Amino acid sequence: MKAVLGLEDGTSVVGDGFGVEGTCSGELVFTTQMTGYMEALTDPSYAGQVLMFTYPLIGNYGVDQQNFESPKVHAQGCVAREIARVPAARPSVAEYFEENGLLGISGVDTRSLTIKTRTVGTLRASLIVGSDDGDEAVRRARAAPPIGDVDLIGSVSCPEPYRIAGSGKRIAVIDLGVKRHILESLGRRGADIHVFPHTATPDEVMAAKPDALFVGNGPGDPRRATHAIRCVRDLAGEVPVIGICMGIQVTALALGAETYKMKFGHRGANQPVRYRDGSISITTQNHGFAVDEETLPEGCTVSYRNVNDGTIEGFENSDLNITCVQFHPEAHGGPRDTEMRFFDRIYREIP
Is 300 in the active site? Predict the structure, then answer.
């Protein structure tokens, strides 16, 4: 089965399709992780994006559903150099894609596509499985809206509030597309978790009498998380605020800071971050937006910084009891250098 990937700059590449015939469009992004491919594909933060793996062979150990970050694949499509056809366990990635109506392309030069993305920045793309019409793929890519113009959070947030009962501190979670392992990291520490849809009001959140407010990851432009921004703005200072990934961006926006779209973002399981004490951790990340350090208000201090490009990877505000990080300390597809450091600390410091 033929497949073609077209980019808005006029590039098109033909490869081997897997999954089912069809078309999808979105922002083409790359991740450098070598394992955890299903964690990445099922991460709600990849909604609206076509996910490309730089590691040349994907699917070696099959599809491990116990490590899914959500019940389904959220990436629009998958791009890989090679898909393992005879993995260590079944089903294979190709079989899973076919059974679940998903789109993928293999047999393409992912190195070249990654270099292009790093050089010119993230591009809109269209994947057509069942065709090799490059002109049509390019046309569809150019017709796709920029990711900042698409409201993706509503498609991945829970429709109604729900509770994961625990005997410990009560934590209200604003669901912008929160990953399962974030909730599990909180739950392992005994937290009584109350999860709210992205549209929750401050009054609805406070009705649960939380000991802390938690804002997690999500897809697209953080400025579209208007309800969550309002919650943090109104509740900061009343309850501790904790943020991961989009949560740090939402919190910064609530405090009056600004965010910006990165050239190609940080996505992978090998991102080094330096803590304020000088120690370095290897982290898993998935974000295309970042906090503008120059706009952070007085009282906010940078706690983590990316070793590669110097961008903010965490900030705190002791007066308002705010702790946020840009990376994913709970990640199961990569190193767990920061899981205990982050979650033990935030849980211990909740009054």
Answer: no
